[in-house]
Design a protein that fits this description.
152 residues, 2 domains, 0% strand, single chain, 71% helix, mainly alpha
């Protein structure tokens, strides 16, 4: 009985390891065969504009929900601040320039905004959102998703 339990555990471990190797191989093959997408500045500006509008709607919804939605309000305000800072900037024309601008924004000490519930929480959310944009910019993906509700 102990031998069969051990062999079942060993089979399970071997099966999991084999699946990991297969998934790594398919990920590597996928990235090697996919051509790099060219930078689409118009799409990035459109995405920033849509996210700006969605963040304004999210702020209004959080404001209507009241006290328990203060964090959601600050999070939406942070998204609005980041999108407003970037949507009309010339840095969106070039991927490297946008990455440099994002790095510059992350390095700021303060992010001026009014009507917030908690300034420290707002600044933390701004930096988090800017880091998300850095990842999207480096990978050049995610800008095609222009729906209001996105995965965070």
């Amino acid at each position: 009985m102990i031998a069969s339990a051990c062999s079942a555990a060993i089979r399970c471990i071997i099966w999991k390891a084999a699946n990991r190797v297969l998934s790594l191989r398919t990920d590597r093959e996928r990235t090697m065969t996919d051509p790099l997408k060219p930078w689409d500045a118009a799409l990035v500006r459109k995405w920033l504009e849509r996210r700006y509008e969605a963040s304004r709607l999210d702020q209004a919804a959080a404001d209507r929900r009241g006290y328990e939605a203060r964090d959601d309000f600050d999070k939406a305000a942070a998204e609005e601040w980041a999108c407003r800072a970037l949507k009309s900037a010339d840095c969106t024309n070039d991927q490297a320039a946008l990455a440099a601008r994002l790095k510059e924004l992350i390095g700021q000490d303060e992010y001026p905004a009014t009507g917030l519930h908690d300034d420290i929480r707002f600044e933390r959310h701004v930096r988090t959102y800017l880091r998300k944009l850095v990842k999207m910019t480096k990978a050049n993906e995610g800008f095609e998703n222009i729906l209001r509700h996105q995965r965070r």
